Amino acid sequence: MTATEDSFTNWKTREEIAESMIPIIGKLHRERDVTVLLHSRSLVNTSVVSILKTHRFARQIAGEELSVTETLPFLHALTALDLGPSQIDLGMLAATYRSDDRGLSVADFTAEAVAGATGANKTERRESRDVVLYGFGRIGRLLARLLIEKTGSGNGLRLRAIVVRQAAGQDLVKRASLLRRDSIHGQFQGTITVDEANSRIIANGNEIQVIYSDDPTTVDYTAYGIKDAILIDNTGRWRDREGLSKHLRPGIGKVVLTAPGKGDVPNIVHGVNHDTIKPDEQIISCASCTTNAIVPPLKAMADEYGVLRGHVETVHSFTNDQNLLDNYHNSDRRGRSAPLNMVITETGAASAVTKALPDLQAKITGSSIRVPVPDVSIAILNLQLGRATSRQEVLDHLRDVSLTSPLRRQIDFITAPDAVSSDFIGSRHASIVDAGATKVEGDNAILYLWYDNEFGYSSQVIRVVQHVSGVEYPTYPAPAV
Known about the structure:
With 481 residues, the chain is of the alpha/beta class. 32% of the residues lie in helices and 23% in strands. Its EC number is 1.2.1.12.
């Protein structure tokens, strides 16, 4: 057999193994509310090729490719356990098993590693929590996609309604079409039908009521069978407690804002300060996409090296807030054509750091430039550290953080020498450390952090909503603290 034939045979074998994993992953998700991950990447509802690519991606962060032949035994071991709702990371299982020298079988090791999710220890499956989207723009439609994707088990979060202003002419059909197709994020994964008679969009079996209103105080959500729902305001129209309290209508239990909150509204970055949310808090903010991008790596650096001061320069994709062609705008410069210019503008991300990291004494300044790309931005974080270090030490630290720390869902790590912004469309991490661009000299470190300011941010919002709803299930093996 030639080398070419041997390589192809190997591929076909791995393809067959990946194919056999799909029904196991699906059954665990539907029947036990178990989400199978690989280095923080969900394998639920993915294709054979996606499973193989996710395994291969491990070489960029762990140094070597992870084979499906290595992870399949762990997956089989999970099916034999009395598992409760949880997230199980096959990549972490394989890595920790490799470093364990006790000679345990895969089955015994797996049972021990996920013991917190089995038998008497397991979390009981909760009833689904109703969710309402107030607004249905760029972020709203991505939140809808993520919510629909996560209802496969019948538990967790359930998108019940969307509130929008009535538009003229085939409003429902056009909104459904925008959910079905997106110029940046591609086709919706599933089926969408429109029930115009009842003002509903039906997506993958989820009946989503479309409520027309331009005043939140006029809506009674209980009239639609909605109870104790989490309402996600993605309009940005109200940002303080007084304004957002208008949403606390019959049927609504909590309000989550997808923009920086003002006044005493808590600004939450999942992975960093989500555990500070008080159980009785009804109104919270998920801060901005840029705040979510810089705060996790800033915390990772501060915890390890200390940070004395810093500056963040954001090179941000243009948004709907800007004009396509030169026209009047309330803000300076934003009236100039977004697809034709780089536009210097302000960012509140640096000042928002103090809300998410109140113990950080360092002064962080910031500025921003909007550029002619439709999605994915980069934050350049220039830090003066508390001690001198080396480039390799910083990279090793951030690589470990992305793999094994509590921030592994927020921070990704890439070593590709020719990575560009479009490579990160659809990333579910808050930010991605570009190893090749990282610069370190003595106590000065400059990090280049990519982030999908639409999809990565939406993923962070959903994590916060899962947390406050009580359906954010624990991950096993537990990350290193």
